[in-house]
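Tokens in:
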């Protein structure tokens, strides 16, 4: 093989490597999912969102049905207002329950929809009124330790 052909093959492998890295970066950043159908916007209010992030998934029955597009703090009610883009193919009843879950023990957080039984459906711009905030592991541990310390004080 002469030098020119060798340089060509090295260039091809470098280009394939760059494309593969770009693909992985988009997958990790959740930026590769394009919206092929129309979406509608829903909002939900939470007391504590934990580590929830913009572009995080919104799931129902384990299926991604939307993405988080914005997180704001309401200074009047001292709550986090989460705005979600929901795929237009999926409609949810008005009494749908939105909870913040964690994938695995230390994985990413996402919003999970638990579907209700109401006949009326949520429309674009509606707010999911039934919510459950994130479980903060540090808070649970500190409450456990505080309770154990209080039990130790009572036995003396």
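Residues out:
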């Amino acid at each position: 093989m002469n030098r020119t052909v060798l340089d060509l093959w090295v260039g091809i492998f470098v280009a394939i490597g760059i494309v593969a890295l770009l693909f992985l970066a988009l997958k990790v950043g959740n930026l590769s999912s394009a919206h092929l159908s129309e979406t509608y916007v829903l909002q939900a209010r939470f007391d504590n969102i934990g580590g929830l992030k913009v572009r995080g998934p919104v799931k129902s029955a384990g299926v991604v049905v939307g993405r988080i597009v914005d997180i704001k703090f309401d200074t009047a009610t001292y709550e986090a207002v989460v705005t979600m883009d929901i795929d237009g193919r999926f409609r949810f009843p008005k009494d749908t329950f939105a909870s913040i879950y964690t994938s695995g023990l230390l994985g990413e957080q996402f919003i999970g929809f638990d579907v209700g039984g109401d006949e009326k459906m949520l429309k674009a711009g509606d707010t999911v009124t039934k919510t459950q905030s994130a479980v903060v592991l540090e808070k649970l541990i500190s409450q456990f330790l505080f309770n154990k310390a209080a039990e130790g004080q009572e036995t003396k």
